[in-house]
Every structure is written in C-alpha cells, then in structure tokens.
Amino acid sequence: MARFLCRCGETLSNSLTPNDIQLRVYTDKKWDDIINLGTIDSVDIPFPEYDVWRCLKCERVYVFDGDTVIKTYVLETEK
Ligand SMILES: [Zn+2]
Fold it and tell me: pLDDT at position 47, please?
C-alpha cells in the first residue's frame, strides 16, 4: 500500500484492491511471453516492470521505478 501526492493536489492511493489508480502496463512482447507460459491464472501473472499510476482528477500518469517517479505524463489540452 502506498500514497502519492499528485501535482494537482489529489492524493493517490493504492490501498483499495482493486483500485482505479494503478495501471497494469506491459509491452506486447512481455504480454506474449506471459501468455506463452501456458497458464493464465491471475496469480501467475508477474507484476509489470514499472508501477504506473493515473490520477483520476487531472489524468496525469506517473511511472515509478521502485518508489521513484521516473516519468510524468500530462494530458495535452486543445486551446
Ligand atoms: Zn492529479
């Protein structure tokens, strides 16, 4: 369980399971490797390489390497 303060001021938390904050992001190649393990029991699916969180308020997406944010994506808005 963890909490993170989004730049918009919203507190993000993954304490609820399931939640709408954490995204399970795999490359197509990694997903293909997982599927080719021969079993698709959800407990056998490894966690993705990076933790990816999305703020439901501002839609920023944070990519974590461990506890460190390594990328932040901000939604572009049309003027
Ligand atoms: Zn936010």
Answer: 84
